[in-house]
Design brief:
Helices cover about 25% and strands about 35% of the residues. By secondary structure, it is of the alpha+beta class. Strands 1, 2, 3, 4, 5, 8, 9 and 10 form an eight-stranded mixed beta sheet that branches. Strand 6 and strand 7 form a beta hairpin. It is elongated.
Length: about 220
């Protein structure tokens, strides 16, 4: 059966649409566009579609990937045009391409790149933030509060080895962290934990809604 990958942006208020609601949105769009999705077998069949890596609620993204299997071949350019007319504001479709049916993107994700824009003026705070970031990354361990899946209790977990890189850039006059962190089924780090632990280290008062996070890209193993 042919497999396809749809790339799209998720911007604006649609960032508050959950992972499951995004799947429902695309399922409806595929149905009304006449895309013949392939379904699983068994008592409760479901369409063979899924995101390469779920996006956290409240994050925007410039490159989301939705993988799906159909029962018949598609003419990508025509289908992409039909789908664009069925998207809400904030979902911008970028491309639709045929994919290798033997590859599963979700199993190949290794890391993700994010941009986190902090409410700090770049011109006046750049030097201090760079010095604080150096000290933050030089720590022998970086402890963050993470909730255990089984017990639901919060525990301290060292996230230092899950951070692959952090760079500082100017973004619309503000300080932005461009970071690459582990992502995928084997190892995954929410970039919010990086910002929260950095703010605690640097003595900066930041609430969750004070900064914006955008996923820039996903990285895959060969």
């Amino acid at each position: 059966m042919p497999k396809y990958v749809l790339e799209f942006e998720k911007k604006g208020l649609v960032k508050y649409t959950s992972h499951l609601d995004m799947l429902r949105l695309f399922k409806r769009a595929f149905k009304t566009s006449g895309i013949p999705l392939e379904y699983s077998q068994g008592y409760n069949p479901h369409p063979k579609m899924g995101f390469a890596q779920p996006l956290s609620l409240g994050f925007t993204s410039s490159s989301e990937l939705l993988e799906f299997t159909t029962s018949d071949s598609l003419r990508c350019e025509i289908v992409l045009g039909n789908l664009k007319d069925r998207m809400p504001i904030g979902i911008n479709l970028l491309s639709l391409k045929e994919a290798d049916p033997k590859r599963n993107l979700a199993s190949l994700v290794t890391s993700a790149k994010y941009r986190a824009v902090l409410p700090l003026d770049y011109a006046s705070r750049e030097h201090d933030i760079r010095e604080s970031l150096k000290g933050y990354l030089d720590q022998p361990e970086i402890l963050a509060k993470k909730r255990e899946k089984k017990t639901k209790n919060f525990i301290d977990k060292d996230i230092k080895n899950l951070i692959r890189s952090i760079e500082i850039e100017k973004f619309e006059g503000k300080i932005a962290f461009v970071m690459e962190v582990d992502a995928g089924s084997k190892s995954n780090l929410n970039p919010e934990l990086v910002i929260q632990t950095f703010a605690l280290y640097a003595g900066i008062m930041l609430e969750k809604g004070d900064f914006d996070i955008e996923r820039i890209s996903l990285e895959f193993s060969e």
